[in-house]
Amino acid sequence: MSLSECAAQTKRIVNPLFLSFFPGNFRCHIYSLPFLLCRNPTSPYSLYRPLTMTAMMQPQIILLKEGTDTSQGKAQLVSNINACMAVADVVRTTLGPRGMDKLIHDEKGNTTISNDGATIMKLLDIVHPAAKILVDIAKSQDSEVGDGTTTVVLLAGEFLKEAKPFIEDGVHPQNLIRSFRTAAYLAIEMVKELAQSIEGKSLEEKKSLLAKCAATTLSSKLIGGEKEFFASMVVDAVLAIGTDDRLNMIGIKKVPGGNMRDSFLVNGVAFKKTFSYAGFEQQPKKFVMPKILLLNIELELKSEKENAEIRLSDPSQYQSIVDAEWNIIYDKLDKCVKSGAKIVLSRLAIGDLGTQYFADRDIFCAGRVAEEDLQRVAAATGGTVQTSVNNIIDEVLGSCELFEERQVGNERFNIFSGCPSGQTATIVLRGGADQFIEEAERSLHDAIMIVRRALKNSTVVAGGGAIDMEVSRYLRQHARTIAGKSQLFINSYAKALEVIPRQLCDNAGFDATDVLNKLRQKHALHSGEGKLYGVDINTGGIADNYANFVWEPAVVKINAINAATEAACLVLSVDETVKNPKSESAQGDAAAGAMGGRGRGGAAFRGRGGRGMRRR
Predict the structure, then answer these.
(1) Catalytic annotation on 182?
(2) Distance between CA atoms of 222 and 119, rounded to whole angstroms?
(3) Active-site residue among 112, 119, 149, 424?
(4) How far apart are CA 552 and CA 468, in angstroms?
(5) Distance, CA of 522 to CA of 516 (rounded, Å)
(6) I need a labelling partner for 237 at 20 to 30 A (CA). Which of 18, 295, 315, 541 fits?
(7) pLDDT at 308
(8) Where are the extended beta strands (E) located within 298-391?
(9) Virtual CA dihedral for 76, 79, 83, 88, nearest 10 degrees?
(10) DSSP state of 42
(11) Catalytic residue among 112, 150, 426, 565
């Protein structure tokens, strides 16, 4: 078919609005129906299959709301990895005994100084959705084992850093995830194999071993200079509560002033003197073997709150109503005295009448006692909190060997010691600045959790990067037995584990390359004598950390490896992020509603924060 014949045929099919000729092909532009005439082996020009009208009229499918931001593909995955690495870099310098502290100033003006990974992650207020995963694993590590929060964030960041080049080279994320999970399983099995049990020891030996674990945890904290002093205090507190899993049975009270060595442990309960009325100073402040009554009722003179209407025909009858109210409160106080209790504590107020009434009968009373303190007194003394003063029997009363009110700094403390059940303890912390005492409290919380875990699981491993180097060596050796790309992935996982000893060296100012080379050489010995060697923070070299009592519970390392691997795999498995504009528009609607409300009713929502309080 010639070119002119082809054009004539086309004219017969449609009425073209525009024809253009090109060397080698012919395209017919028709606004109602496009055709393509292209060269093929049989004919220089042939009619291409036209698009049907149905295909042209197919409507565009809209799935997501207008303004929805979607990011996907390799670039999105690399972006998520970069965000997680940035978060890990924030807490990187806080690791180890020579780690630095972070000063965080929030929008309310509160200042926090801490090197605890979980505390820093909570206060950072991270908004990136992928980076929030690292915040979650730090929190879970803190609630599960108490320590290793910085370690878990660092490991997750390093796993992703090692995975990044593979992702950029086009490796499918699922291949990495599979290899990382295999490596994590092998690493955890190796940690269990290297763990040493402290079971079957005498009480004194066990206390000494637990103190070593607590001291290792405290060495990286602000109170690391007094780690032996606080380690023994923490061990005594944990052993005092026995098998009770409730952490709130160990109370920590903060009293500004003095120095750290002025802190002390009470084998019982201590709490600050509560608000008191006239007559309180006349009460006795010391008892030996007293009975203790715990209440959850008000002992205060006030009008009864019954919705009743009383009609009086004689004004003298009004006095009988007033007398009845007095009789009610006197009846309650009298029943408390008849119970034989010498100490009366209530979660609600004990008024000036009750305070004076008890003082006249040589009874100590305290109202508005915090719920937590009242529960700890009940657990320690064997008493039961009562919601009524009727039928008070001896079984519901608590007892202790000694009760006294003691001055601690500028505060007065009520101290119950020598409690029969002994399932509670209180640490009274002293120190200079408020921020220092708060950081000391967080440090003791970590140490308490570690001792509890060590007591329950009774296996420990060498710290200071020793266990990480040994597991890394084992994984490198295992990788050589695997064919295929998995060998590279497991090798990179092994390399990532070395971030702990490397960062310990960097934070202490040592040459990390030199120390790591020494550690690799020591751990490579076939005799196995180097498997407990880690970073020696004091000399800048390497040492047997198990022999130097740098210990940590095996559960800390197992949990850290597990959580970090899961977080890394979770980030790697995400290939698309969809940002819904609904939340932003909802905020806009709320703001518009508030403005509209102001215009309509004239009552603007105002408060100290600019919202939430209706102005009256």
Answers:
(1) no
(2) 14
(3) 149
(4) 12
(5) 10
(6) 295
(7) 66
(8) 343-346, 364-366
(9) 110
(10) S
(11) 150
Residue 512 CA to residue 84 CA, distance in Å, equals: 23
Q: Which residues contact 115 (CB under 8 A, 6 or more apart)?
A: 94, 99, 100, 101, 102, 150, 220, 221, 222
Instruction: Give tens-digit pLDDT for 334-363.
Output: 888 888 888 899 988 888 888 888 888 888
Give the span between the Cα atoms of 369 and 37, in whole angstroms.
92
User: What pLDDT does 490 receive?
Assistant: 93
Digit-coded pLDDT (tens) for 491-543: 999 999 999 999 999 988 888 899 999 898 988 887 777 888 888 888 888 88
Answer yes or no: are the C-beta atoms of 460 and 552 closer than 8 Å.
yes
CA-to-CA distance for 498 and 307, rounded, in angstroms?
A: 72
* Separation of alpha carbons 518 and 534, rounded Å: 10
More confident of the two residues 496 and 435: 496
Q: Say which of 142, 147, 373, 446 is annotated catalytic.
A: 446
Could you say which of 10, 116, 274, 373 is catalytic? 116
pLDDT, mean over the chain? 79
CA–CA separation, 415 and 595 (whole Å): 54
- For residue 298, CA distances in Å to 229, 337, 354 come to 42, 15, 10
Closest to 97 measured CA to CA, from 218, 231, 258, 275: 218
Backbone angles phi, psi at 173, to 5 degrees: -55, -35
- Summarize pLDDT for 88-143 with one digit per residue, the tens: 999 899 888 888 888 888 888 888 888 888 888 888 888 888 888 999 888 888 88
Judge if pTM exceeds 0.85: no
Mean pLDDT of 427-448: 85
Question: Which tens digits make up the pLDDT trace of 265-294?
Answer: 888 888 888 877 777 788 888 888 889 999
Q: For residue 362, count other CB atoms closer than 10 A to its CB.
A: 11
CA distances from 577 to 128, 136, 425, 574 (A): 11, 19, 49, 8
Q: Does 10 qualify as catalytic in the annotation? A: no
- What are the φ/ψ torsions at residue 455 (nearest 5 degrees)? -70, -35
Whether residue 150 lies in the annotated active site: yes
Length reported for the chain: 616
CA-wise closest residue to 501 among 532, 529, 474, 464: 464
Conformation bin of residue 549: beta by default, left when phi > 0, alpha when psi is -120 to 50: left
Q: Is residue 541 within 8 Å of residue 518, measured between CB atoms?
A: yes
Write out 342-368 in H/E/C secondary structure. Answer: CEEEECCCECHHHHHHHHHCCCEEECC
Residue 243 bears catalytic tag? no
How far is it, in rounded angstroms, from Cα 428 to Cα 271? 9
**Structure tokens, 455:** 């007591």
d(CA 449, CA 451): 6
Lowest mean pLDDT, pick from 38-47, 228-237, 331-340, 516-525: 38-47
The model's pLDDT over 465-483, given as tens digits with 9 standing for 90+, comes to 889 999 999 999 999 998 8
